[in-house]
Design brief:
The complex is a heterodimer. Chain A is an alpha/beta fold. Chain A has helices at 21-24, 44-47, 85-93, 105-113, 123-135, 164-172, 176-181, 184-193, and strands at 6-14, 19-20, 70-73, 77-79, 97-100, 117-120, 140-144, 149-151, 157-159. The longest helix of chain A has 13 residues, at 123-135. In chain A, 43% of the residues are buried. Chain B is an alpha/beta fold. In chain B, the strands form 5 sheets. Chain B has a 5-stranded parallel β-sheet with strand order 5-4-3-6-7, sandwiched between helices. A 5-stranded parallel β-sheet of chain B has the order 17-16-15-18-19, covered by helices on one side. In chain B, helix 6 (189-200) packs parallel to helix 8 and helix 12 packs parallel to helix 15 (451-460). The chains are: A alpha/beta, B alpha/beta. Chains A and B meet through helix 4, helix 7 and helix 8 of A and helix 2, helix 3, strand 5, helix 5 and helix 10 of B. The structure holds iron/sulfur cluster. Residues 68-69, 116, 118, 137, 139, 350-351, 411, 414-415, 432-433 of chain B line the site of iron/sulfur cluster.
Chain lengths: 207, 476
Amino acid sequence: MKPIRTFASRLVGLPVDDVDTDQIIPARFLKVTDKEGLGAALFADWRYDAEGRPRPEFPLNRPEAEGARVLVAGRNFGCGSSREHAPWALLGYGFRAVVSTGFADIFRNNAVANGLLPIALRPAAHAWMLRLALEHPRVQVTVSLERGIVTLPDGATESFPIDGFDRECLLQGVDRLGYLLGVEQEIGAFEAAYATGVSTLPGASLR
Amino acid sequence: MDGSPRSRTLFRKVWDAHLVRDETESAPAVLYVDLHLVHEVTSPQAFAELRERGLPVRRPDRTLATMDHSTPTTPRVNGRFVIADPQAAAQVERLAENCRDFGVPLYALGSERQGIVHVVGPELGLTVPGSTIVCGDSHTSTHGAFGALAFGVGTSEVAHVLATQCLLQRRPQTMEIRVAGRLTAGVTAKDLVLAVIAHTGVAGATGHVLEYTGAAIRSLSMEERMTVCNMSIEAGARAGMIAPDDTTFEYVAGRPFAPAGAAWDAALERWRALGTDAGADYDAHVTLDASHLAPMITWGTNPGMGLAIDACVPRPAGEADVQEKALLYMGLRPGEPLLGKRIDVVFLGSCTNSRISDLRLAASVMRGRTVAAGVRMLVVPGSQQVKRQAEAEGLDQVFLAAGAEWREAGCSMCIAMNGDALSAGQYAVSTSNRNFEGRQGKGGRTFLASPLTAAASAIAGAVADPRPLLAGWEKA
Ligand code: SF4
């Protein structure tokens, strides 16, 4: 996972509220067994026409979108399916951050797990940034994860909340599995003391 | 547990009992997972991660895999399943390989116990009160019907649980959904939960675990409770739970993996203490009266866009652009009634409504009637066990005689990964849980509804209220 610290980027505006993960990446692209190449399928049903040609009017297909690393979506982003293919596709396309008013819980976890920064802004700031992205697509903003702020071209800043643990993981580019493996002893102790009514499966006998 | 209130909610009791390490300001809690369900779509990259790091599956005895999402539901050919799509075949094969290599029990395609992961867990008695259950699938919330804390996770977290049997979690907030009264004839658990989501909206419960309480919930069967908890995620909730009671215990008793003998007695004692204590606080509340509900149907492109079946398509207001976009996609006009809207397909299935009681409900309306000309109806049982039970009761014959297709078990047209899909522009009444754009096939248009409404609509060839078809029904 690539660490995130501070980066400057143009914005791509996608003025759609409640974007669900079926739109981010439709289910027919989930038959893969790796994470590669999903960027091409990002927003596939909006981005391409019936013949698979890019629709020129779709924000991601406009020339200014080339190289942009921040997606400014409508309100409430990432609801629906738990598919981690959604952040894989966003990262595969080249995004490092998504801006909205809020994120669905599983999407947020999946994004952070992969080094995609979810930036939740208060509604007025979000509306403003979305307008900026749509009307001035060549403008650059600076995202600072260390400081938890987005700096606009005029120097104004907008802060966004981020869990301290998530921030450390993103800044270091470390994943959570390493952390959990470090808890090994406690997990063992918990299991040793654990008495539940949960029946475990008699492993191999099932096959 | 330190810092835990004296009066606790059901959620809090289950949460506390599974804390390997409590959360602090600087780190999330380490939560122990009792049961990890695995399927072919969200697991291959997780197993790959374990291989890369040289890690084993920590508790294969707490892990169970099945195949459901990309598997065919078309009838077997000479007793065998044929997967036409090579990519899907490779994915299914990869799961088999991973389960072999890591010693994870698997109900593969062809097994008598194969089926949709959220149908299989409960019917085998693996889903029990007070447990923590996760799966790389958002509808894991289904299992909360038993008073389990059950939620969906992403593929990275699937790897975490495979390797450590634990997850890093911040403690969510709680929301009580109190449903008073009683459902009236022809109004089902599906209608109830669609009404809840219409009330909260698709993000209204973000960050919360729901607990459904009240007389209407108490009177539901286990399968109905599963339908309700299943769709909690559509309100944005992390999970949905219902306190276990005698209905729960009766359902679990005697199932293949349920505790037995002295273990059962001990379990029962623990389970009876799980309910929310008097005086425990929730962070938020919603109240509804089931007695006033009509059959519900969705008109738009998210599950929160639901209304009573005899209502008209709303005029965009408030977040108007979202609604206008939905109307455009659905090809509907504001003010247009949904009743009588022509449909092309009816899908009876999915982890929301593919259990035996769902099939019985639909069959009760379809017996002696036929699917309207030009309408295709798919009946897809949730598991091989449900399929066998339905066949033993002759329900398959009712559906076949009516002109519907009787399929093998799986997710099928709920997610349209396996070739069962709507064509662009087609309208479907579906008992599944998501009406997002393209969810059931690119360009397909979904009306979510109950099994009763689906059956009535299949017969009418158009969106129809099931109530007039019920025995003894008289319009007040
Ligand atoms: S039936 Fe649909 S919602 Fe349920 S697990 Fe399968 S794809 Fe997901």
